[in-house]
Amino acid sequence: MTEPLAPGTAEVPAPGTPGGPLPGEPEFDLVVRSRRVVTPEGVRPLAVAVRDGKIAALLPHDSLEHRREGTAREAVDLGEVALLPGLVDTHVHVNEPGRTHWEGFASATRAAAAGGVTTVVDMPLNALPPTVSVAALEIKRQAAEGRCHVDVGFWGGAVPGNEGELEPLHRAGVFGVKCFLSPSGVDEFPALDRAGLREALRTLASFDGLMIVHAEDPALLTDPPGPAYRDFLASRTAEAERRAVAQVVELAAETGARAHIVHVSSASCLDVLRAARRDGVRISAETCPHYLTLTAEEVSGPAYKCCPPIREAANRDGLWRGLADGLLMGVVSDHSPSPPDLKAPDFAAAWGGISSLQLGLPVVWTSARERGYGLSEVARWMAEGPAALVGLPYKGAIRPGADADLVAFDPEGRFTVDAAALHHRHPVTPYDGRTLTGVVVRTWLRGRPAGGGAPRGRLLAREGIG
């Protein structure tokens, strides 16, 4: 006797009925069974059935054993290996075209797939030209076409003088636009001042666009007085970040626009965000694996340099509380690679950016499990939350109707990071030599293996576009 359906599962149309397979054909293209399937309703033993690239049904774990042979073209039994939704990383600097020697769509998306990431959203700067117009967006899309091993979407950019491009970019399908309040590090993507931010937010509010903000107050930033990490950390204080977040909150409240703070590094920002939420301001925020797992006390070289910087251990604990409280909606990589020669010679001169796209899941899981969090929380922070930020309801969760983006993840497996073995273009990461818990065993993109062979990723646009 077939066991009854559990809550959150769904039956599927029978062969020959509307929505079902033709008589005599397998019901599903793929069925993946696991004793630990991570769904929005919790972790359960299930069989995830895939048809035409979508999750067709969530069935009781052993149900297919009681049905006719040939139910699925391919069946995978993971046993105790967990099945997670494909991660959604909304903060990735791919850098192609123009700086493809830093990173590119082929290498970045191959690394993503190896790390269980099935959707990335590419940042508008560090490529040439930056994505600050529809024409530049088309150049970016042409560079990505046919090179992506996972699905890829795009952010636009807000820079001084391009207010007239923001609505066309929105109509062209970007998920929102990014601005800097302090120097971005590249001359072709200048920062917005207070008046420029207000004007951009007013423009975005007129069509309910999303602004994402690198929030550091330039008036409080200084040049590092020396080459050591303590000098760099002192040059970019927590107060500079907190004050900039407060400015974004103030102007979002004034204009009614939606705003999102990227890569929050300072727990001092959380009270500002909490008060803004209480007041009904449309504000959200994210953090990154390096802020949750690394500390200023352990920094050992320029591979750790990023902006805003990695702060002290007590601050890291505050960020975890912000995640648990929901003030931080997700964890994304801010993968910002560069050639090794730019990550030298010291903290004053090195390029600021951390390469971690392939490693985010085991990095976060290693610390999360030690702090008592489970796979459900990690999936919410790294898949469901980022998907919701950019409005992709068919990504980020294992549920019927969603894309069959799946990750087989061994939460007890361990490995030692070898930077030279990563798929990132350059073997530079602060995690080199670190032993992590959690191994990505296999990744599926719309029900097919991702990361090897021909690229099968699609270029995504905001819902309702393209």
From TrEMBL:
The protein's enzyme class: hydrolase
EC number per UniProt: 3.5.2.5
Keyword Flavoprotein attached: no
Domain Amidohydrolase-related: 83-448
Superkingdom of the organism of origin: Bacteria
Subunit description: Homotetramer.
The family this protein is said to belong to: Belongs to the metallo-dependent hydrolases superfamily. Allantoinase family.
Record protein name field: allantoinase
Organism per entry: Microtetraspora malaysiensis
Gene this chain is encoded by: allB
